[in-house]
Amino acid sequence: QVQLVESGGGLVQPGGSLRLSCVASGSIFNIFTMGWYRQAPGKQRELVATITRGGSTNYADSVKGRFTISRDDAKNTVYLQMNSLKPEDTAVYYCNADLIVVLRTVYWGQGTQVTVSS
Residues 18, 85: contact at Cβ < 8 Å? Predict the structure, then answer.
């Protein structure tokens, strides 16, 4: 059984920073792309950032220059450093991982709430 567990969410003032972490656990053979997505109330889930096993990154235009995705393959962990946070960044943030246990499958975490408000 594979689990992805996010942490690091919370309440922060505009202009502040948060660092999200997501750890993948279980009998994982290999992890390919890992990513962060978010869903605000009344909106569809959207891509925030992804990172390949080789370290190539991709960001939504709305977070470029403010967010940084990274990964530690020794720990099966993906991070999202979020700086200069804005109220419009408020959402539930989900991590996902494209990985192999027996078959290649995409798994999702349960989400962590990020609220940007004064």
Answer: yes
In three state form, how does the secondary structure of 33-64 look? EEEEEEECCCCCCEEEEEECCCCCEEECCCCC
**Nearest one of 50, 84, 53 to 69, comparing CA atoms:** 50
pLDDT of residue 102: 87
Q: What is the dihedral of CA 67, 68, 71, 75, to 10 degrees?
A: -60
Q: How far is CA 105 from CA 15, 30, 31, in A?
A: 36, 11, 10
**Which of 80, 56, 77, 55 lies closest to 66, judged by CA?**
80
Q: What is the pLDDT of residues 70-104, one digit of tens each?
A: 999 999 999 999 999 999 999 999 999 999 988 88
- The amino acid sitting at 83 is N
Q: Dmax of the chain from CA atoms?
A: 46
